[in-house]
Amino acid sequence: MIPGVGPPFGVYVHVPFCLRRCDYCAFATWDDRSHLISDYVRGLVGEVASAAGELPAVTSVFFGGGTPSLLAPDQLRSVLELVPLAPGAEVSVECNPDTVDAERLAGYRHAGVTRVSLGAQSLCPHVLAALGRSHGVDSVVGAASAVRAQGFDSWNLDLIYGAVGETLGDWRSTLEAGLELEPPHVSAYGLTVEPGTPLAQDPARFPDDDDQADKYQLADSLLTGAGLVSYEISNWARPGHECRHNHCYWSQGNYRGFGCAAHSHFDGRRWWNVRTPERYLALLDAGRPVVAAGEHLDEVQRRAERLQLALRTSGGVPPEALDTEGLEGLVERRRGRLVLTVAGRLLANEVATRLR
Ligand code: SF4
Questions:
Q1: Whose CA is nearest to atom 5 of ligand 1?
Q2: Domain holding 195: CATH number?
Q3: Choice between 134 and 269, residue whose per-residue pLDDT is larger
Q4: Which residue's CA lies nearest to atom 2 of ligand 1?
């Protein structure tokens, strides 16, 4: 609960356009449809406007994608201004370093954005190439200094480890160079192989589990040493800079998604919109619902999911929810809860099978 505001309620806005598709990406995004952007924004405005009256005070908004930073500040503002924000709401935008400069970031700030998530992924040129990213190291450094110069209260540096050809030394360089940019929040995800991606068709480029474990431990050690605190398996932040929108997801909070492929959740009921921007726009134009399907979780399913999510956070789970036999060294007691140790975070899925 946020004092004086009420329970958290998130809004997610999906922007399904990218300059170029990264080799590992399975998100609902397209790199050949920029001609649809202005129609899509018009569609978002319509969808948000028709739902805004039903929304409670919104404590966090997240523009994700895709590459939301392909939206001009006025386009982003036209959507954001329809959302009934709670006082002090967090408004995050995912930005690709290639697509932002001081002017665009200033425009976002003026439109009400409070937080930027910068998709750096690596600060080694050959690793960026191996990931199929469109930007170079200079773009990341330039974008980070522009984010800082524009005075954003909070921002995230998003990193990926485990690409082919990335040594432990390369990963250390990325972390050290990343920390020099002074991000108050860092996300570091192990590269995963998603079906249907170019990466999935090339086993020679698959990440190695042991290598990723070493890289995770190095990340935790360097990030923690720099004063960032692990608050979820893949997320570290200086105190006060944790992402409120992520907290909403991880605490099974309610949220409403807008745009194609966006998911929503309300008290155990989940639904999601049609996947492609064309279908989304066609349905809106025909005055028909854009929801593709939904499901309802019963109380048993909700409890299981709640514990799985909580186990991945530094808040942990109640002691009675976990059978700890044989889990020595993987969980520890903190403030009356059971929380994963660093070794436990590496085996989180195995530990989760012991939830009861
Ligand atoms: S920029 Fe992000 S959303 Fe776009 S293709 Fe790359 S990983 Fe996917």
A1: 21
A2: 3.20.20.70
A3: 269
A4: 66
Closest ligand 1 atom number to CA of residue 132 = 6
Q: Please answer whether residues 187 and 216 qualify as being in contact, where contact means their C-beta atoms are separated by less than 8 angstroms.
A: no
- Looking at residue 5, its pLDDT comes to 53
Indicate whether 62 and 202 sit together in one domain: yes
Nearest one of 195, 233, 197, 185 to 212, comparing CA atoms:
233
CA dihedral 126, 130, 133, 135 (to 10 degrees): 10
Q: Ligand 1 in contact with 64 (CB < 6 A)?
A: no
> Could you tell me the residue range of the domain that residue 315 belongs to?
300-352
Residue 82: its H or E element: none
Ligand 1 lined by 131 (C-beta under 6 Å): no
Handedness of CA 168, 169, 170, 176 (dihedral sign): positive
- Type of residue numbered 73: P
Task: Please give the distance, rounded to the nearest whole angstrom, from the Cα atom of residue 94 to the centre of ligand 1.
Answer: 10
Pocket mutation for ligand 1, best pick of 25, 70, 95, 160 (most atoms within 8 Å of C-beta): 25
Task: Round to whole Å and give the CA distance between 245 and 236.
Answer: 14
Compute the distance from residue 170 Cα to the ligand 1 centre, in Å.
22
Q: Could you say which of 234, 249, 264 is where a domain stops?
A: 249
294-330 pLDDT, tens digit per residue, is 999 999 999 999 999 999 999 999 999 999 999 999 9
